[in-house]
């Protein structure tokens, strides 16, 4: 209960209002609707009781040694990030509608946009979307608006959950067609591109792709351009500590899942949709955008800008219906990136790639197991296993408390019995040896 | 506000090459298997700062903000209530925050149980039959709701293309409709702000898919004809969607399902006290009747033999609206909030939000006339009085004058149907004393504005920046360093 | 320079300078009501416009206005200067701030539009 009113307050307030009772205030509600019976607990819990309930529930989730990634990555959240995001001036503010009273949030958003541009090598970024999947879907929608075309070509390595979300965003309308670029050795078959791209709105590619492999993007933008299509690239932001950026290889839109920048896994959210583009598409960006300007004394300040694109003004003509961003998550990602800086992010990316390389080397030599693909990968890889991957996962989990990876059969049946194994910088040599031993024993 | 106002540098302008905050030391010494041609050529242009530099920089920024904890924040339609600290602590428990979204169900029993119980409580609270907690926000919920409607009509073999929306609606309603390929039909409200049933009858027919209605509406007025409205819509074979942004006015007092609606959305960051975070993250839900339940996004959570499991339905689902389950971290906070309230105590939220709004309306009635002559529900829509308007003072000036006096401004210029609207939602968690102080500040704004209009046109003067040049910002966008 | 008297006006505040190459813009009254224009989106050259259908967008900081084609026809030229410098719409709506030119498909449509006197009266009426 968080209402401060005493009986005396209530009486005085009703008197000032000029109402004899509360019931008089709600006379506009037909009385038969008022105060129904609710089958809800008759007693609330006090804080210590509620704390015990919450701790009990949290305790029912087990914490295995985790090697599952697949679009959400286990990261360490630095103490300084937690300290800044728990400052209630950030936590309990709202969208900066009154810029003079919200300069902290606004400058943080401006620095977030700058951080996204720096990581992805792009010209401009928005204040964030719900998650990587919604950023991806909005980028493809933007490409459809720009080109006026409705054919969407995508690489088989795009996160299948992103494609599901995209199709939902287009409301499963038959007007849109989806054409998959087949895989060759775990990456996009480039030879297939020219024929497939004809009449396409965009080519949507993810790199590192869902299977962890790094796509060679050189020349791909030219192929898209030759067909009059735009290039939409999805990338894990930490991988860009070392990998070629969407800006460098000529993407029109670049998106990603910002959870990777130090946000907790939290069973799927809140996450952070990163969304960036080339300058010429700036007005195609959905959602909030912060801009730098001056106040009437000429002093630097920040405002939400390009607002006339948005739902509260354009209503049915808006680019998107999104109104919020994930400001607090964006703040966390900005602080995280500032703490690591360019060198630290490079180290972080190297540590991920190194841990995965070490794990691949260990697991690839287990009898009956092998690496499915030979190409360079970032922080996850596909491991072929003998027998059912799903059963192996359950067995090792039960026996050793190790979650060895995501079985790919439901998503990529053509790959056979395989696991997508991920190792981030949170994994030590001992952890990886434990993983290898656990699989060996279970087989 | 105590801050070094001279320091308004960006983090990148404080950067000093070679300085570092955190390191990522690779204990494995294993070599990354990434050839040079796949590597980035230039390092990202990010600041190089010590940890202390970073902490001081962002702590300073935090102090430039108004927030619920530091200032009364009566932003209408946003429900800026107190965000209990306990909710934050609960969500931060490692068991919840460390759980991978693709974790095996056996590892996620606690979270699944929480989702299952939260779902059951919310369905009962709304008087409806089924729920999805997957949407990430209110607008995302609207989108999910209209997808359900689309799937529902497709399944019945009906082609319905129109969404009917009153002109007082939130902008997200028509924006969502258009995003989905529906045509929006706007209908004018009656002078008292209510939906005009005669107009509704004219615009509703075999092409209508959904009526989207905010209850109480954006003027803080309850749609007293709601039963008739729902009957008219249902007779045309269409569905009623209730925008639940204003549920704070009804929670624990009215079951929206009893009103006859087919579905509604919830905003956890409004009604259920989860913090707004400077504009997110929020979380949403769609609660619906049984006839829409088969189409809900997957997965939902089911209980089988004492265990909780993800349920992928029977193939009629609209699919996923988000990559993973939902904004679970926010749902944990909402659940903690539900534990703190009995059924009766939930009703007190509605009770005191309504009393508080009417109290402000009464205190200000002589200076800022109310758009509606009736009592309001949880928020009131006022306008500057004639004496202010005659001096050329506008709602924007009132807003800026208020922030100079230590109060966040109400929502302004919304709803669009009210000229110079000032929309005040105090919420139930504010005390009488705070409301008295706010009314005094509003009176001071009025008095000093009428006496010296220019002084109010110049406001704010006490904040780190004065009024900002939004024209320059939009004409020559500077969006990054 | 077009004089206001030489133009014809719509109820949605566009003007045309009639002719084989008809010039379309917004009235001085309209630019004044919109406030500072920050962005202009114009149709493409060659695009076929229909009378009274939206064909361009003018944005101020907090509003967006659809521009409706006063007559039907094919766009022959667009004013790139206003997309680069939207302030021209405020400074010189009738001269440098014109929006586009079109070749009317039914020149008689222009006759139905208001002349300067009628438009002034229309604006006066609307204010009440």
**Number of helices, where a helix is a run of at least 4 consecutive DSSP H or I residues of chain B:** 15
Kindly state the mean pLDDT of chain B as a whole number? 94
Q: Approximately how much helix is present in the residues of chain B? A: 25-40%
| Tally of domains of chain C | 1
Which two chains share the most extensive interface? A-B, 208 and 200 residues
Q: How far from one another are the termini of chain B? A: 27 Å
**Oligomerization state of this entry?**
heterotrimer
| SS element count, helices of chain C | 4
Low-confidence stretches of chain B: none
Notes on the protein architecture:
The complex is a heterotrimer of chains A (443), B (481) and C (128). Chain A has 443 residues and is an alpha/beta fold. Chain A has 2 domains: 65-76 and 341-442, Alpha-Beta Complex (Aspartate Aminotransferase, domain 1); 79-335, Aspartate Aminotransferase, domain 2. In chain A, 37% of the residues lie in helices and 14% in strands. Chain A has 14 helices and 17 strands. Chain A has a 7-stranded mixed sheet, sandwiched between helices. In chain A, α4 (79-85) packs antiparallel against α12, α6 (103-120) packs parallel to α12 (327-364) and α7 (132-147) packs across α8 (160-169). Chain A is globular, with a radius of gyration of 25 Å. In chain A, 62% of the residues are buried. Chain B has 481 residues and is α/β, with parallel strands linked by helices. Chain B has helices spanning 51-62, 85-91, 94-97, 109-126, 138-156, 172-179, 197-203, 226-235, 328-339, 343-364, 386-390, 395-404, 432-451, 453-458, 470-475; strands spanning 130-132, 162-166, 183-187, 208-214, 239-243, 263-267, 284-288, 300-304, 307-311, 380-382, 411-412, 422-424. The two termini of chain B are 27 Å apart. With 128 residues, chain C is an alpha+beta fold. Chain C has one domain (11-126): RNA polymerase II/Efflux pump adaptor protein, barrel-sandwich hybrid domain (OB fold (Dihydrolipoamide Acetyltransferase, E2P)). Chain C is 21% helix and 32% strand. Chain C has 4 helices and 9 strands, in the order βββαβββββααβα. In chain C, the strands form 2 sheets. Chain C has a 6-stranded antiparallel sheet. A 3-stranded antiparallel sheet of chain C has the order 4-6-7. In chain C, a hairpin with a 4-residue loop joins β1 (8-9) and β2 (14-17). The chains are: A alpha/beta (443), B alpha/beta (481), C alpha+beta (128). Chains in contact: A-B, A-C, B-C.
């Amino acid at each position: 209960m968080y209402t401060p009113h005493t009986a005396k307050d209530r009486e005085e307030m009703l008197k000032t209002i000029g109402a004899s009772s509360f019931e008089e205030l709600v006379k506009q509600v037909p009385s038969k609707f008022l105060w129904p019976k609710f089958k809800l607990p008759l007693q609330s819990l006090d804080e210590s009781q509620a704390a015990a309930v919450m701790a009990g529930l949290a305790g029912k989730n087990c914490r295995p040694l985790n090697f599952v990634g697949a679009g959400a990555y286990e990261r360490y959240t630095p103490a300084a990030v937690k300290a800044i995001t728990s400052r209630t001036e950030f936590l309990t503010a709202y969208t900066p509608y009154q810029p003079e009273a919200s300069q902290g949030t606004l400058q943080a958003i401006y620095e977030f946009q700058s951080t996204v541009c720096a990581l992805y090598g792009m010209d401009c970024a928005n204040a964030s979307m719900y998650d990587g999947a919604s950023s991806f879907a909005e980028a493809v929608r933007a490409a459809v608006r720009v080109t006026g075309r409705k054919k969407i070509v995508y690489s088989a390595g795009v996160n299948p959950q992103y494609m599901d979300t995209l199709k939902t965003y287009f409301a499963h309308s038959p007007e849109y067609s989806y054409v998959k670029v087949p895989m060759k050795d775990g990456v996009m078959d480039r030879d297939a591109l020219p024929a497939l791209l004809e009449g396409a709105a965009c080519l949507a590619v993810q790199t590192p792709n869902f299977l962890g492999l790094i796509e060679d993007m050189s020349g791909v933008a030219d192929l898209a351009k030759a067909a009059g299509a735009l290039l939409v690239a999805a990338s894990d932001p930490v991988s860009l500590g070392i990998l070629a950026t969407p800006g460098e290889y000529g993407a029109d839109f670049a998106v990603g899942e910002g959870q990777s920048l130090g946000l907790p896994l939290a069973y799927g959210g809140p996450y952070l949709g990163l969304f960036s583009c080339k300058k010429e598409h700036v007005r195609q960006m959905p959602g909030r955008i912060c801009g730098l300007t001056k106040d009437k004394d000429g002093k630097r300040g920040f405002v939400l800008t390009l607002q006339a694109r948005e739902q509260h003004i354009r209503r049915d003509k808006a680019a998107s219906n999104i109104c919020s961003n994930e400001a607090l998550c964006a703040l966390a990602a900005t602080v995280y990136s500032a703490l690591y800086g360019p060198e630290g992010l490079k180290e972080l990316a190297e540590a991920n790639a190194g841990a995965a390389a070490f794990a691949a080397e260990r697991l690839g030599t287990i009898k009956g197991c092998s690496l499915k693909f030979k190409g360079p990968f970032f922080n996850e890889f596909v491991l072929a296993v003998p027998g059912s991957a799903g059963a192996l996962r359950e067995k090792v989990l039960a026996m050793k408390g190790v979650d060895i990876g995501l079985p790919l059969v439901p998503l990529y049946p053509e790959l056979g019995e395989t696991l997508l194994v991920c190792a981030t910088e949170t994994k030590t040599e001992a952890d990886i040896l434990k993983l290898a031993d656990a699989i060996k024993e279970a087989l | 506000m105590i801050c070094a106002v001279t320091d308004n540098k960006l983090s990148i302008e404080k950067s000093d090459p070679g300085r570092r905050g955190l390191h990522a030391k690779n204990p494995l010494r294993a070599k990354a298997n990434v050839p040079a041609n796949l590597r980035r050529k230039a390092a990202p242009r990010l600041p190089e700062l010590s940890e202390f530099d970073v902490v001081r920089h962002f702590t300073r920024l935090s102090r430039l903000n108004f927030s619920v904890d530091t200032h009364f924040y009566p932003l209408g339609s946003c429900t800026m209530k107190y965000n209990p600290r306990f909710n934050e602590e609960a969500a931060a428990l490692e068991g919840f925050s460390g759980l991978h979204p693709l974790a095996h169900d056996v590892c996620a029993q606690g979270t699944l149980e929480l989702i299952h119980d939260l779902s059951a409580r919310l369905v009962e609270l709304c008087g409806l039959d089924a729920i999805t907690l997957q949407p990430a926000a209110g607008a995302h919920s609207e989108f999910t709701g209209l997808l359900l409607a689309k799937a529902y009509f497709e399944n019945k073999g009906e082609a319905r293309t129109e969404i009917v929306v009153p002109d007082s609606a939130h902008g997200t309603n028509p924006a969502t409709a258009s995003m989905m390929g529906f045509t929006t039909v706007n209908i004018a409200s009656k002078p008292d702000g209510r939906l005009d049933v005669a107009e509704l009858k004219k615009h509703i027919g075999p092409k209508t898919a959904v009526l989207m209605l905010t209850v109480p509406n954006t003027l803080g007025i309850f749609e007293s004809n709601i039963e008739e409205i729902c009957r008219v819509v249902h007779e045309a074979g269409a569905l009623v969607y209730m925008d639940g942004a204003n549920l704070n006015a009804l929670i624990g007092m009215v079951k929206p399902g009893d009103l006859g609606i087919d579905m509604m959305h919830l905003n956890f960051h409004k009604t259920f006290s989860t913090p707004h975070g400077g504009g997110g993250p929020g979380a949403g839900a769609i609660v619906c009747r049984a006839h829409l339940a088969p189409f809900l996004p997957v997965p939902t959570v089911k209980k089988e033999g004492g265990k909780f499991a993800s349920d992928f339905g029977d193939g009629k689902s609209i699919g996923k609206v988000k990559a993973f389950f939902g904004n679970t971290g926010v749902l944990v906070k909402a659940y903690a909030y539900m534990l703190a309230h009995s059924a009766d105590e939930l009703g007190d939220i509605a009770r005191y939000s309504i009393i508080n709004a009417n109290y402000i309306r009464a205190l200000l009635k002589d200076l800022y006339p109310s758009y509606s002559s009736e009592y309001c529900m949880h928020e009131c829509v006022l306008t500057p009085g004639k004496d202010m308007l005659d001096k050329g003072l506008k709602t924007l000036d009132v807003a800026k004058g208020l922030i100079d006096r230590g109060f966040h401004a109400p929502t302004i210029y919304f709803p669009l149907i009210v000229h110079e609207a000032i929309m005040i939602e105090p919420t139930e968690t504010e005390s009488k004393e705070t409301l008295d102080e706010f009314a005094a500040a509003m009176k001071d704004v009025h008095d000093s504005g009428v006496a010296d209009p220019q002084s109010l046109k110049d406001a704010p003067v006490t904040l780190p920046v004065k009024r900002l040049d939004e024209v320059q910002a939009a004409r020559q966008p500077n969006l990054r360093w | 320079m077009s004089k206001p008297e030489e133009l014809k006006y719509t109820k949605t505040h566009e003007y045309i300078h009639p002719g084989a190459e008809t010039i379309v813009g917004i009235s001085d009254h309209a630019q004044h009501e919109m406030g500072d224009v920050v962005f202009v989106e114009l149709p493409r050259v060659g695009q076929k416009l229909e009378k009274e259908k939206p064909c361009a967008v003018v944005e101020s900081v907090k509003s967006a206005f659809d521009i409706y084609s006063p007559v039907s026809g094919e766009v022959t030229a667009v004013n790139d200067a206003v997309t680069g410098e939207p302030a021209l719409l405020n400074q010189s709506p009738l001269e440098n701030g014109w929006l586009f030119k079109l070749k009317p498909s039914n020149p008689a449509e222009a006759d139905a539009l208001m002349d300067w006197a009628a438009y002034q009266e229309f604006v006066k009426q609307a204010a009440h």
